[in-house]
Design brief:
By secondary structure, the chain is α/β, with parallel strands linked by helices. Helix content is about 40%, strand content about 20%. It is built from 16 helices and 16 strands. The longest helix has about 35 residues. The relative contact order is 0.05.
Amino acid sequence: MPSFKFKKGRWSFPCLGTKFHDDLHVLDDSAPVTVITAHTPSVKVNKFVIYYVFYTTSIYLPSLPIELLNAILLYSSNQDLCEVAQSNRLCHTVATRILYRDVELMNPVKIVRLNTTVSRRPDIALHVRRFHVSDNFNSGLEVLPSYYNLLHKALRQMINLVSLSLLMGGPRSFVLTGCTFRLKSFTTACHWDKPLVRWLETQDDITSALFCGRFHHDARISGRSLPNLQRVSASPLILAAVVPNRPVQEAELCLTHPWLLNSDIISTTLRILAYSSSVVHTLQFITHLTDSPETTLGALRAVPEHLPELVSLAIHIVRGSVTKDILDGLESVFSSFRTLRSVMFLSKNSSDCLHDEEMTSPLAEIWHKSCPSLEIVSFPDSIWVRNSLLGWITLKELEKILSARERDLELKEKDLAEREKALMSQQLSLALPGNDLSNLN
């Protein structure tokens, strides 16, 4: 395999007989930044194959399409991408673009190194399309103001960014001031304050947004902003600010306080969702269950009252437990829906009724009787689907049946191919000279 040597900022390739300077230090483990991304498929590629292809392509680069280089690198690990980028300038260009395209960092040291590199290298910042950053570090480090100032400089360089996650609580939205990228997806834990609202009013391309910060009443957003918003996740107050007169079709209601799941608050919030310029067909609750089953069921009965055309309903319980009384009472809730097709229940409490398969197994059929449009019911440990021939069956069982049918079909196709081969041989033998064909009738 061709060898190479590192000499203080210069890469030497004896196999190519050439030397050239390159700014590859930003990709090396010993250098200012190491990027960890999640863009590559779960396919293992032999490192020798990568070395062989890229360390020998300099001779044949004029005839090797750049699309082929890009396709090979998509299946490479980040470590291999860093090494391949050091082979020649063309490979460096393609590998760098893939390395920095999707960046998700949780280590504070690596975040600082990346932001330093990106803020100083606009050419690298152009490659960043998705960026996920946080200030919630498990190491207990104190985050200084310079951290946010450096992040602000880096974000202003990422002009091609389309997806951004700022998991930073508090009044940190000033880091977005002056940023010119046009996002399609946005997630933030920053406060809903005036700097955030002013920046949102410049983002006409956002289709999906998640707001989990504190709401400031003096931060009012223009009714003409976010004209393409289709999916939003937020608290009731923020939903009231962003849903009306926008084409929201999917809504996620975050009820962070236990006392928010009651009929009055749910009814008010759902009336707000009805002001969407489109039809809300998907609704998800993220909530606590600490009140009585009557209070919980009363809140859920408000859903079909205000959104009778709902297609998908999901309830994620982050605290509390789902009792048998709640499961029994859901039959009357589902009877008021007209087009509901999918229901999902998730719970972090592994000892509640949702994790009891004996208790949940008959529920899909019971709920379907009250809501005939229901086709999928999901629990933490099982997913039930309705088949026109088999009735209600778990997804695992359905996969087993389909696999068995596929094997049977393969055997039939194999048998048919053998019969066709035997028939062809018989016809050829009959067509040979000297064969008597008079007895065929």
